[in-house]
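Here is one chain, start to finish.
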Amino acid sequence: MMRAVFAALALAMLLGACGTATEPGAVGVQRRQMLLVSSEEVNRSAAQAYHQVLAEAQAKGALDRDPGQVQRVKTIIGRLIPQTAAFRKDAPGWPWEAHVLSSDEVNAWCMPGGKIAVYTGLIQQLQPSDAELAAVLGHEIGHALREHSRERVSMALAEQIGLDVVASAANLPPIAQNLAPLVLDVTVNLPHSRGQEQEADRIGVELAARAGYDPHAAISLWEKMAKIGGERPPKLLSTHPAPEERINDLREYAEKVMPLYQAALRQ
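Its structure:
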C-alpha cells in the first residue's frame, strides 16, 4: 500500500513539472515539456561544464586560434541574440559566450544559458556562407531556448526518482546534485530526439530571418552536411529527420518566415 502511495506521489511530481520553455514564435513551436529541474540549476551546471571544456581546449592550444574565425562567429551570434526575444523575453540578457574550438569534427553546440562552441571542422569542411553559419548557430541556439538539455536531464532524473521513490518510502532522492557531467553529456555527446531537432530547425530559420539572413540557407547548409556524412555522419546529423523529410520541412518554414527576413532587410 505504501509503495503505491509513493509511486502516485512520484507521478504527481512529474506531471506537476510539465510546462513549456518558450513562446511559439512565428513558426508556432508549442509542446509541453517535462522540466523537473530548475533553469538556474541547469544553467549553473552548464556554465561549470562549459568552462571545463574551454580549459581543456586552452591546455591543448585549441581555443580561439584564428581571430578571424572567432570574430566572424561572434558577429553572426551578435545579430541572432536580440532575435531570441521572440521566443523568450529573458534570453537576450543571458550571459552569452562563444568560442571556436580547433577540431576536425563537424560540430557546433549551445549549452543552456547561451554557452556556444563552434568547431573548426565545421567551418573548414562545409565552407558555409554567413547565412549558412547563421542557420547552424540559430539551430543550436534553438536547443538552448527550448531548454532541451534541461528537458533531457529532467527525464533522466525522473526515471531515477520514479524508481527510488517506489523503492524507499522513507527518503525522497535529492534532485540537487552536481549536474555538470550530465548537462555536458546531453548537450555535446548524446543526440537529441527527432522532435527536438525539428523544433530547433524551425526556431533556427526564424532567428536567422529576423536577423536578416536568408532562411533558405538552412536548406543548402543541411544539403552540404548530408554530402559529407558518408558512413560516419557528423553528430549534427546523428538523429535528425531523414534528409528529404528535413529539407521539405525547412523549405516550408523558410517560406513561412520570409516576411520577417524581408522586414529585416528593409530595416
